Amino acid sequence: MNQRALALDALRGYAIITMVLSATIISSILPGWMSHAQTPPPEHIFNPEIPGITWVDLVFPFFLFAMGAAFPFSIGRHAEKGRSKLMLCYDAIKRGIQLTFFAIFIQHFYPYVISSPQDLRSWLLAITCFMVLFPMFMRIPYQLPEKIHKIIKLSAYLIAIIMLVTTQYANERSFSLYFSNIIILILANMAIFGSLLYIFTIHNRLLRICILILLGALMISKDIESSWVEHYLNISPIPWLYRFEYLEYLFIVIPGSFAGEILKKWLSENHENIYPTKVRTGVALLSILVSVILVNLYCLYNRFLEANLIITIILLTTGYLLLKGKPKTDIRTLWYKLFDLGSFFLLLGLFIEPFQEGIKKDYATFSYFFVTSGLAFMTLIIFNIICDYFKCVRSTRFLIMSGQNPMIAYVATDLLIYPILNILGITPLLEYFYSSPWLGFLHGIILTSLTVFITMFFTRIKWYWRT
């Protein structure tokens, strides 16, 4: 590999940063397109009957897509070094279990879970949780025997378990395996099942696609009453960790693995000319890709379905003509392959949009999986143009470094920033931001910026959380 996939890091960073932003803006005073489409402001009451998506609904699928795109780099690298499939499966299951523990641990130590109203004890416990996660998920940056590293890690897990079972929680809550962060829990399931699927189809994309088709058939049939599919698939031997419906997100992770394979193959090759002869080609494609994303978000949210389909086809056709027939050593070849697959998934999602009463994140529809996968392909190309073609590494460093340390970015706001602001007595001042929509958005920008700064700091000193 002659260079790191900066575009993939940037995509992952974009996903985690916008995830933090969407959780910290004061959405109750902002327009509906600043929230999940199915939980509109101001009450944010979940309504599964509302079709459409917003930019907030792209956050999680983009992260899942990036996870799948990383499989060829992580799993593929170990496979190329001769690691057996059995050991690769062990790694996948181990990673999934670690992420599950992470999901349970952090969920129990959000300050609002420990006490209501929040108090000094809850804030200090949240900060303690954040600190314990370091020896648990990072390799201590000192030259120590491997045995010592394992002892430190196991000790951190032991401390975490003691904290979980001895802490008094608010509202008579007690420790429960079923009380976990659902986003991380789904990622844990994808780390296991997505990795296993990739391991056994690493050289057979067709088989990977066939398994997805079979999975789709089961998904369609699982809600048919009194069927064997409903009877067996709705039963879980470990319901606190696994449920069959979590597997639906493989329809985003696996397309991501296709993108990762294309990107990995390109990076592993020697290219005499990796740049288009004309800069305006990159600018033109960038404009098309951004337009595709914005048009789909605007039209699907406002339900301009026919107009969206027509405009999308025109934009995709223009992009196809711009990229078609380029030399294999030209970076436009990479863009074309990603664009080709992204266009397929996007159009597939738009064609089946009327199915299941319109595109929805919750409860997730097939249209949602395919549309967001297609838009993720387009976003990956955007970051490849910006980071690799235009070499805007310095200006995108906050994305890249956040993408290299996403676990810290995910919890820093709730387990570190909010507790510190509360201890310092600053949190009451934040109520000023509830007075207008712009200030409500600025509230999220400030907290997200603090999260990014903290994440970049730990990334710079190479304190990475890894599973």
Automatic annotation (TrEMBL):
Alphabetically ordered keywords of this record: Membrane, Transmembrane, Transmembrane helix
A Pfam family: DUF5009
Keyword Lipoprotein: no
Segments forming domain DUF5009: 4-262
Spans through the membrane: 12-33, 53-75, 96-114, 120-142, 154-171, 177-199, 206-224, 244-263, 283-301, 307-323, 335-352, 364-386, 407-426, 438-458
Name of the molecule in the record: DUF5009 domain-containing protein
Species for this entry: Phocaeicola coprocola CAG:162
